[in-house]
Amino acid sequence: MLKINNVSVKYGSFTAIRDINIEVEEGEIVVLLGANGAGKSTTFNTVSGLNRPFQGEVIFEGSRIDKMSPDRIVKAGIAQCAEGRKLFPAMSVLENLKMGGYVHRRHRDQIKKTLEHVFELFPILEEKKDDPAGSLSGGQQQMVAIGRALMAKPKLMMLDEPSIGLAPLIVEQMFEVIQQINKEGTTILLAEQNANAALKIATKGYVFESGAVVVEGTSEELFTNDEVRKAYIGA
Ligand code: ATP
């Protein structure tokens, strides 16, 4: 479904990611592991069209997307749920969610149906739909961010650190919802520092270090890899 082939990205003269190769099959949950600054967000932003690679190509469902505009990439079926949530804090929960459906604005019935589905996944958001998004708890804001990405009806959803700053119980619920979204047919690419939780739901993973992929394998392989355990699982 998604192929990142030999992709390198620079910010000015600094090479943030080098020769990245990643493959995501339809239906999978794929996790990118790595410390802060290792290059996970840069990789996501390259897939979503916010960064332009100076080398390599990004292919989605057989077509090159690395020269497409971000809105065309969303229309093609890729939605990104950014780290730090990046909501519009003064706007209501409902307005934030509707923003995610912008690319489908001519299909009101579809938007209404998708919104109902988001409220089924996150009933608390229906209760709080008229509240300013910025007044919600961290976990609820993360739900809005995921809901907003779902409003674009993506085939592939990229989630950047969905568990960051959340209490363990909320993290568990978040991962359950991600799994459910996946079961309903959305392929997931996930960046996480919480390797333990992420590898439990992922099919495979890639470990980033200083802008390069240093280890890749099935979740099972990564889970039992001594270096991965030492660095990311703490055992
Ligand atoms: P994090 O979880 O902190 O976002 P990450 O693994 O996603 O980490 P990136 O955000 O992709 O890492 O950052 C990769 C490298 O590129 C880091 O050294 C970072 O400082 C640098 N970087 C990221 N964005 C920019 C930018 N806009 N301009 C210059 N350097 C940047």
From TrEMBL:
Residues in the signal sequence: none
Keywords on record: Amino-acid transport, ATP-binding, Nucleotide-binding, Transport
UniProt key word ATP-binding: yes
Pfam families in UniProt: ABC_tran (PF00005)
Domain (ABC transporter) ranges: 2-235
SUPFAM superfamilies: P-loop containing nucleoside triphosphate hydrolases
InterPro entries xref list: AAA+_ATPase (IPR003593), ABC_transporter-like_ATP-bd (IPR003439), ABC_transporter-like_CS (IPR017871), BCAA_Transport_ATP-bd_LivF (IPR052156), P-loop_NTPase (IPR027417)
Gene3D superfamilies assigned to the protein according to its UniProt record, in alphabetical order: P-loop containing nucleotide triphosphate hydrolases (3.40.50.300)
GO molecular function: ATP binding; ATP hydrolysis activity; branched-chain amino acid transmembrane transporter activity
SMART domains referenced in this protein's UniProt entry, alphabetically: AAA
GO process annotations (BP): L-amino acid transport
Family: Belongs to the ABC transporter superfamily.
Protein name per UniProt: Leucine/isoleucine/valine transporter ATP-binding subunit
